[in-house]
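Subgroup meeting minutes
Present: P.N., E.W., G.H.
Scribe: E.W.

1. P.N. recapped why we're keeping a running log of single-chain structure predictions: easier to compare across weeks, and new members can see raw inputs and outputs side by side.
2. G.H. added today's entry (344 aa).
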Amino acid sequence: MPCTWKTSDLQLLLILTVFSVVECISARVEGPISNSTQQMGKNNYSLALSMDGKQNDSKRLAEVNSSQPVWVDTKVVLSCDPIPKSVLVTWEIHLRDKPLCTKAYRTDNNMTKETNCTDKRITWAFRPDQNFNLLIDPVAITHDGYYRCQRATPDGNFHRGYNLQVLVAPEVTLFRSNNGTAVCKAVAGKPAARISWIPEGDCVPKQENWGNGTVTVWSTCQWADSNVSTVSCSVSHPTGIRNLTIELSRGAPKSDGISIPRVILFMFISLILLAIVGSMWLLKISGCRKCKLKKTEGTPVEEDEMQPYASYTEKKNPLYDTIKRVKTSQVLQSEVDGTEVHTS
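Output recorded in log:
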């Protein structure tokens, strides 16, 4: 029995010793691991902060681009916001099929410089020492392009870009062709217009590009339904929407030209109108002649009016009165003499 108790005590002491050794070893291992973990966390945090700072700087120095639609024959001002401590301000103008144009201004010596800039319609909006904006007046189709304002500062370069799109409103027409189809046309628009019909029909779209960047589009439609009497054409364009309406003739024959029956009918109506006008003209002339004859027959002509001079001479001439008295006295004398001879 005493030996048994001694053996069990020795086993218990050995187990306790083993456990204490394991705990010491684990404590020594966990210490360096936790320290390295904390150090790695600090390094990651510092790296994240530095990356955030770099991202903020990249955002601050990043180029800002925007689309700028503008109507033709108007004016536009492209802004270039001033930044403190700007040393050099440069406008870069990229036009289609033209060399790069640059307009630069130095703030330290108040000097401007231009390179390959021949278009006088593109100028500084104001004095460069007061405003960095760019003015285009008037806007032409050739001003399509990319405009960038670059400002150089001790902190870096700042950019502002514009994609300038010049808009040209198309001339819209709607008419009925000789073969009975309806044609909707949008001439010389920029960009190309879109055409739609109400109601929808059997349509054929076509397009023609011009050298100046404008586009002409048209749509030719016909409707199989004979009940369609009125159609509408809608032209959509960035400058606005145009709606036109036209009436279609019902039951009219469709042909490639003017029909012969229509020509004959037109000539027949013209001849009838000419006959009516000619008859009225002849009646008017004959009526005037009859009126003149009636006036001539109904007015009596007096003797004094037929012989005005003789009547005047007889009535007003004193010499004629004296001669008449002499003749009268002679006749009376001759009668008296004849009477005396006969008596004797």
